[in-house]
Amino acid sequence: MTVTYRHHHQHHHRSFGWRAALIGAVVLLAACGSKPPTPDWKINSLGAVQRATEAYLSGQQRVSDLEWRNARSEVSRTGSPEQLARVELLYCAAQIASANVQECAGFESLRADALAPEQSYADFLAGKSLTAAQIALLPEAQRKSVSDPNAIAAIEDPLSRLVAAGAALRAGRATPETLVTATDTASAQGWSRALLGWLNLRAQRAQSLGDHSLEAALRRRIELVERQGQPAQAGAAKAQ
Question: Hey, which bits of 47-94 come out as E strands?
């Protein structure tokens, strides 16, 4: 997101692995370098965002809601709309990663106080056309995906890959291969909510194309996830 943004991203990628790649912006909530102790609100908000994102992607709604509230509460201690805007952007990224392409209302209400990198990322998530200057402010791993959806599969971090796929979907440039990549990524991570989002999308598209065999296979996978692997009850048992 600026020189400072990229420096923070690199620092926390080492510290937090894939979680630091939520969209790159999460690292702006944490300290960089060996300076005075990091304030509690930064540590607490970063931890809450990480737990909230994992819970959201995994379909743990109550945990997710609680941790997003905690993250918002922690950054509100600063009285900074800019900090809260970053949290809202991370929430939107988790939604996009799950093929949930609704408007990012929380961020938009704070856009006026957000910095250019956050505004550019919000436009990326919304599928808007970006200028070269805006693309340069995106996390490096996702820049190529703006013009080439085939680059999404090469993104190393699974969450960044899903976010890029969701952004491509929102922009109308997602290919069938993009949807398969997103499905496989969510499946490999065990992120059930994200997986159901992409499976349902693919099943709907298969139905519209008249590919009944693919649709049936996808709906079997959907049923398996929704039943959490438990055997289906027999019709007679249900009647009783």
Answer: none
pLDDT > 80? residue 239: no
Q: Could you tell me the CA-to-CA distances from 17 to 28, 127, 128, 203 in Å, in that order? A: 15, 26, 29, 32
On whether the CB atoms of residues 46 and 162 are closer than 8 A, the answer is no
Task: Burial-class residue 141 by CB neighbours within 10 Å (0-12, 13-18, 19+).
Answer: buried
Band the pLDDT of 25: cuts 50, 70, 90: very low
Q: How far apart are CA 157 and CA 175, in angstroms?
A: 20
Q: Which of 229, 170, 162 is nearest to 22 (CA)?
A: 162
Angle, to 10 degrees, between the axis of helix 176-189 and the axis of helix 192-209? Answer: 150
Q: Are 133 and 123 in contact (CB under 8 A)?
A: no
Which amino acid, residue 7?
H
In one-letter notation, the amino acid at residue 231 is P
b/e sequence 178-205, b meaning 16+ C-beta within 10 Å: bbebbbebbbebebbbbbbbbbebbbee
Distances in whole angstroms, Cα of residue 27 to Cα of each of 57, 82, 114, 141, 191 = 19, 14, 15, 15, 22
Positive or negative torsion for Cα 23, 28, 31, 34:
positive
| Spatial separation of the C-alpha atoms in residues 55 and 68, rounded to whole Å | 10
For residue range 3-20, list pLDDT tens digits in order. Answer: 333 334 444 443 344 444
